[in-house]
Amino acid sequence: WWAFQPLAKVTIPTCTSPNPVTAFVLSRAAEKKLTLAAPADAATLVRRAYLTMHGVPPTPEQIAAFEKDFSANPQSAMARLADELLASPRYGERWARHWLDVARFAESSGFEHDYDREGAFHFRDFVIRALNDDMPYDQFVRWQLAGDEFAPGDSLALMATGFLGAGVFPTQITANEVERTRYDAMDDMLSTTSAAFLGLTVGCARCHDHKYDPIPTRDYYRMLSTFTTTTRSVIDLDIHPEQNAPKLREWTAKREPLAAELARHEKGLRRKFDGWLATGAEMPKGATWSVLALSETKSQAGATFTRLDDGSYLAGGTNGGQDTYTFTAGTPLRRITGLRLDALAHPSMHKGGPGRADNGNFALSKIRVFAKATGGGAEKEVKLAKAVADFEQNKASLSIASSLDDNPKTGWAVDPQFGKDHSAVFTFAAPVDFEGGAVLRVVLEFAVNKQHSIGRPRLSVIADAEPRLNAESLPGPVAAAFDVLRKKGALDDKQRGALFDWWKRRDTGWRGLDAKLAAHDTMKPANTTKVLVCAEGYKPLVMHSQGANFFEETFVLKRGNTELKDGVAAQSFLQVLMPSADAENQWAWKPPQGAQFSGRRHSLANWITDTERGAGALAARVIVNRVWQHHFGRGLVATPNDFGRTGAMPSNPELLDWLAGELIRSGWKLKPLHKLIMMSAAWQQGSARDAAKEAADPANDTFTRRVPQRLEGEAIRDSMLAVSGLIDTTMFGPGTKDERSRRRSIYFTVKRSQLIGSMVAFDQPEPLASQGARPTTTVTPQALMLMNGAQVREWAEAFASRLENVSGDDERIAQAYRIAISRMPRVEETAAARAFIAAQTASYTAEGKPNAAHLALADFAQVIFGLNDFAYLE
After folding, report:
1. DSSP annotation of 294
2. 8 A C-beta contact, residue 600 and residue 225
3. CA-to-CA distance for 537 and 531, rounded, in angstroms?
4. For burial by CB atoms within 10 Å, which of 21, 89, 434, 681 has the most?
5. How far apart are CA 23 and CA 392, in angstroms?
């Protein structure tokens, strides 16, 4: 099959034109005895160039300057124009939208709840930046698949991985749906990867060998295993390190003396600690609490938890209106009689906490504890017999006892004792006792008031003793160290260090210096922002799931059924695009020791971009076809996401392979490819109709005529904003769902259940799967939006205000055409417009409108917005 072959060594056909694209087009046209259409005039070319490359029309001044240059030297003028357009940041904004369709980009999860995805917009910003910087396309591919593995220290590379995580994903997953849902998620990653980069429908092989292409089911699952441990995560990234560096240096300079003072004091304490050990090391009296090291932390609202060295967990990120924390921990202890919950203060919270509310409070409405044996078995809820606390806000509705009832509007709170630590102890009705230890799951519900969750919780358990508030709480390593001392043994370095870290906290001076340093740390410049990545080793973005976020192995499934496993799938790729069935080792990449990622996505990217032995030739064909498609309205392969047997054959295979080879030879740079196409006679043709040519080549496979293209909704809207003078060119950052926004349309937030109406009316696809090409419809809502849309009217009013700076109706009409349509009006158009403006002015005057002339001119401006000339690219 042609798509699986190496790139052909193509010779440029002999031609009078120095442009290879022209030569290939003419050679194919000659086979049908066709020739190119006459060249377009300068005004048409400059408008075509601006709308194609920027998505907005040129200004009259830009048209005049180009026409002057073009009259002197057409090719030189075109070359300068192409360079100017490609150097502008508007280029990235225009062409990024094409790729976002391919990447099925959206900023919400889809399905019935369609939760927003924090930080998802950064992928859109990555695409814009990458295109504007002319990032080599092979790097563009690698970073979207494995930016965290190729450049783990580069924030842009991490932003790029949003490609894998942009698909739909359910947020309510029951226990029996977890495994199937995980395979669905990996399938979305694989299907989008194969369609976007390879133009292949690999996903069809999930349940059976592909019916048309040489893709066995086993190839599918071996390739699917690439994403075994890949998950969505929201992480903190400094995306502007060069801007934030001065503030960070200043903050660091002030921190250094505080840290040095604490270190000096701590050094002095070590001598005292040695003396304390030498004199017998006063042991804690009675039973002690053992601090739990949590194996899993979840927040229903999306908070994050950072473990501190005292075994507590500092909450950060989202502070939901209501929240539920779920903490899981294992313990070797037997006969566990109670649980202790410490709500600890921290300078990062309002008034020092210990709650996340604006006044420093929290309100625990319910606590539940579940237990099961370490080795497995059924989990059972632990009955809590009683609860006591060191302080409670009142004895009625905000007491510790209220955290045991079923009323969500009562619970434990501590107002006004803010900025200090608080503790509560819960006694079990019966001891939790499993031979090999227990796994505890503690659920803390916060529903009494909004944003009243605990900011720094710590959990401890006690065994074989009555749970008491005044019993000392010891981290596990400290308890182990004391146990060694009781037995007159010698501490090893690890035990000694753990014991010192616990002991130093008893020193008033140390606590004061540590508090000063912690307070300064809270003032660290806010250099980071939340970014959605799809990678490995980061804390997964937790859904409402009754199971794991991923599994450690991927299996081959018979008929796609998770109940019919047929062995573990070891990573490999498509045999049809490998020199031998076991050749995957030549692309395999082993990460450095201690890395948090597997290297599998790095290996996949190596294979996809390998032009000699891997899939690189096909990847190059696919992207040059996409570029051609958006210049001509149709690709050399008319099915951009399907280069398989159910797709279209290339209309000019020699040109396709030559362009793919040229892309590779030029270092995978896309900007030279754009310029090469724009400089060709094929791109510069006029669009005059030719009945004979249309009959001989109805589909325009030879590209020997220019077929007008309807602009996408984004370009139509952006053009209206541009000609009205209202466009806001602010780049990057969070988007909006407000259609009144004056920013470019690429900055609309893409929420799957609330797509922007004006964009949908003009055929923006639903972002559920990769979209290689948009349909073009002509339907009533489009006309109604242009005639009746509130924003369209606002832009028409602003356009009219621009036109009022010109004297005389005919001059205003001419200026309107020049600004909006890039040409002068024809005589009959001027006459019709003049009559229309007069009639509207008379009508408004008769109605007693004081601004009749302005309203009439705004009506005319709105008519201009509704013309085919405005919405079509000639």
Report:
1. E
2. yes
3. 15
4. 21
5. 85
